[in-house]
UniProtKB/TrEMBL annotation:
One of its GO terms (cellular component) is plasma membrane. Residues 1-385 form the Major facilitator superfamily (MFS) profile domain. GO terms for molecular function: transmembrane transporter activity. The chain crosses the membrane at residues 41-58, 67-84, 90-114, 126-147, 153-174, 195-216, 222-251, 263-282, 294-315, 322-342, 362-379. CDD domains: MFS. This is Predicted arabinose efflux permease, MFS family. It is a multi-pass membrane protein. It comes from Fervidobacterium gondwanense DSM 13020. The lineage of its organism: Bacteria, Thermotogati, Thermotogota, Thermotogae, Thermotogales. The keyword Transport applies.
Length: 453
């Protein structure tokens, strides 16, 4: 099952990366203004947020397999329709929204890997799947560039969407698994520790998305503005970032085996926060800045599988997809907000990157403090549960001691239970006219004569 999920991730990841790399360039080739391109991306992001939330919940009822088989062909269809009638902006916005609405290529593989892995292999399988996602980005970006130079942008984009439709072939071999869950009758069905972890799962993901959205959406712009890097050089930096993340994510589970999830997450988030605050200093040298950018990319991305496995392991399995869909929705909204922040800091025509890195570092720092606070709350809840269980156990023992004990009947044993006594009366002796009584004592298998009377 894990192999099939990874194969599906590989195919749909290459398709998605290639389409993402070429679509904006395709619009540029038709002299579409940046405002229209930005609005098309805005509606696509909202469609992806709403669709991801809805289909995650629907997949709980009908299963992951049926959800993928329903959404991905429509995703490919609207991806092709998105290339037509570019002169009509409203048409482009509507199709872009529907294209994002049926895009379940990110959330479904993540949920499926977690659900189909036991606790010992869950993090390792998540890291492998995440590494495949990183590799597909590199293959998709470079492959799309080479292919578009040979056959053009429009045919290359169509081929990428055909590949997205064909990516469902491994899904046909998925088992028909449907998540059974109880009807929710009470709002407080989650335990205190589960409720804390759910709030942290949503809040931490939102803060990281708010900070990382700047680098995800505008990383190439940052390098172009600061150092006038060529397109090829920018692509090399991004490719090295993804390859480094893929390589390190394969071994990040060893970090948790040695230090645990909590300490590993805290140290990673703290390191990223410090790194971002130092970015204005690193801007003085392009090579140092590039290394710092790659290191930030690696650290924050290898923390993603750790964070997801750690949080979702606390939550009820039958609601994992619903919670993931909610987080997916919030994260996409936060990325839209980060784009607005970038726009506000660029109103003068030039982006104030000192303020941008300061604001971004603040979001990372807030996430680090939130992580530390949640770990403290989890410790207090665990301690409270332990004390409560100990109190119940002591009450149970005290109740046993307070019960009246019935008085035992007094017995006076003459011999041990293993001792048997036999008495033999002999006939009178003809000479003395006396009677003899012989007493024999048997202990175990030994029989002894004790006395004559």
């Amino acid at each position: 099952m894990i192999f099939l999920i990874n194969l599906y991730t590989l195919l749909v990841g290459i398709s998605r990366a290639a389409y993402t790399a070429l679509f904006n360039l395709y619009l540029k080739s038709y002299d579409i203004p940046n405002t229209v391109i930005g609005n098309a991306t805005f509606y696509y992001s909202w469609g992806m947020a709403i669709g991801g939330f809805l289909f995650a919940g629907i997949s709980d009822k009908i299963g992951r397999k049926k959800t993928i088989l329903f959404t991905m062909p429509l995703y490919g269809l609207f991806g092709i329709l998105r290339l037509l009638n570019l002169q009509w902006a409203l048409y482009l916005y509507l199709v872009s929204f529907l294209f994002g609405f049926f895009d379940t290529s990110v959330i479904m593989p993540t949920i499926s890997v977690i659900e189909n892995s036991d606790e010992k292999k869950r993090l390792r399988n998540s890291n492998i799947n995440f590494a495949i996602v990183m590799i597909t980005g590199v293959i998709g970006y470079f492959g799309a560039g080479v292919l578009s130079e040979r056959i053009g942008l429009y045919p290359s984009l169509n081929i990428s969407m055909v590949l997205a439709i064909l990516s469902v072939l491994p899904v046909l071999a998925f088992p028909n698994v449907r998540i059974k869950k109880r009807l929710i009758k009470r709002k407080n069905e989650l335990s205190p520790s589960q409720l804390i972890m759910l709030i942290y799962y949503i809040s931490s993901g939102a803060l990281v998305s708010l900070a990382a959205g700047v680098f995800i959406n505008f990383g190439n712009v940052i390098f172009y503005d600061l150092f006038s890097f060529s397109t090829a050089m920018i692509t090399v930096v991004l490719a090295i970032s993804q390859l480094s993340t893929a390589a390190t994510s394969l071994f990040s589970h060893k970090l948790t085996h040695r230090y645990g999830y909590k300490l590993s997450l805290f140290l990673i988030y703290l390191s990223v926060s410090v790194l971002i605050f130092l970015m204005p200093i690193f801007m003085l040298n392009s090579y140092v800045f590039s290394i710092a950018y790659i290191l930030r990319y690696v650290l924050i991305n290898i923390s993603t599988p750790l964070y997801m496995v750690f949080c979702l392991s606390y939550l009820p399995r039958q609601y994992i997809a619903t919670y993931s869909g909610l987080s997916y929705f919030v994260n996409n909204v936060m990325r839209a907000v980060s784009a607005q922040i970038f726009t506000k800091l660029s109103v003068t025509g030039e982006t104030d990157y000192n303020k941008l890195f300061g604001v971004t570092g603040l979001f990372y720092l807030l996430n680090t403090l939130l992580t530390l606070f949640v770990f403290y709350l989890m410790y207090k809840v665990s301690e409270q549960n332990t004390n409560s269980e100990a109190h119940k156990l002591s009450e149970k023992q005290n109740s046993k001691k307070s019960r009246p004990v019935p008085k035992a009947k007094k017995t006076f044993p003459l011999f041990r239970r293993t001792t048997h006594v036999s008495i033999h009366i002999h006939t009178p002796n003809t000479t003395t006219k006396r009677h003899y009584v012989s007493v024999f004592v048997k202990q175990g298998s030994v029989r002894r004569k004790r006395s004559d009377f």
